[in-house]
Each structure stands twice: as C-alpha cells, then as structure tokens.
Amino acid sequence: MDISTRESTLTVGEAAERVGLTTYTLRWYEQEGLVAPVGRDSAGRRRYTPGDVDWLFLLTRLRRTGMPVRDMRRYAELARQGDCTLGARRALFEAHRARVLTRMADLEEDLKVLDHKIDAYRRAEEAR
User: Fold this and answer.
1) Cα–Cα separations (whole angstroms), residue 109 to 64, 94, 98
2) Strand partners, 48
C-alpha cells in the first residue's frame, strides 16, 4: 500500500471512532459477515476505505433503529449479490420501516405517560 492510499484509509481504531463503535464491535461485524473483508496494509493491519466507513454508518443506523443482526446479515448478503436483489433489499427495508414506525408510535405513547407523571409530581410539589 503506497502512502497516498494509506492517507485515504483509516485504521480499525480510526474507523471505529468515526462511526461510533468499539474496535471489538467493528471486528465482530466483520466476523459476522456484516462487513466484507476489509483491505489490509503490508503489515496485515486493517485499512478502512471511505466506502467501508459509509457501509458501517448504514449498519450502525440499522442497528440503532432495532434491526436484528440476522436481518442486517441478510441485507449484507443481498447487497453483495448485486442489483438482481434490489427488490428483496427494498422489501427488507420496508418491513423494517414498518417496525420502526410502530416502535415510534409506542414511544410516543410512553412519552405521554412520562409527561403526565412529571406534571403530576410538579403539581404535587407546588401544592406543598
């Protein structure tokens, strides 16, 4: 790997910091097949490209929205197969989107309960 390539790639620690994961989690993602094998430098150290980092950002968003790892793995497998899987990938995201919307509605209801309790405690404190 020449110096210009080295400067445009990130170490495992740098990539982990950039996407908000631990280095352990980043390596686990690779072991689980969520990330294609990452390029390595002449010393055998992982070097993450901007494309790798973009993929990791997507994975962190999917995970943060509650997508199960098995679905993330399925998505990664489909993406590696190319454009012939566009419909399957869209369907996977549509199903996940529906789950996220349901979860958001549930959280809004939960927030209403919290707001009610906060208001009740505030009124009780003011009445003292």
Assistant:
1) 20, 23, 17
2) 10
Tokens encoding 82: 């190319």
Q: Which residues lie closer than 8 Å to 76 by C-beta, 6 or more apart? A: 33, 34, 35, 36
pTM of the full predicted structure? 0.81
- 42-95, pLDDT tens digit by residue? 899 999 999 999 999 999 999 999 999 999 999 999 999 999 999 999 999 999
Mean model confidence pLDDT for the chain: 93
pLDDT class of 118 with cuts at 50, 70, 90? very high
Contact (CB, 8 A) for 47 and 40: yes
Which residues make beta-bridge pairs with 40?
46
Encoding tokens for residue 52? Answer: 């790798």
Specify the length of the chain in residues.
Answer: 128
**According to the model, what pLDDT value does residue 8 have?**
87
93: nearest Cα among 65, 112, 116: 65
Strand partners, 46: 40
Question: How far, CA to CA in Å, does 42 sit from each of 6, 7, 14, 39, 103?
Answer: 10, 14, 18, 10, 46
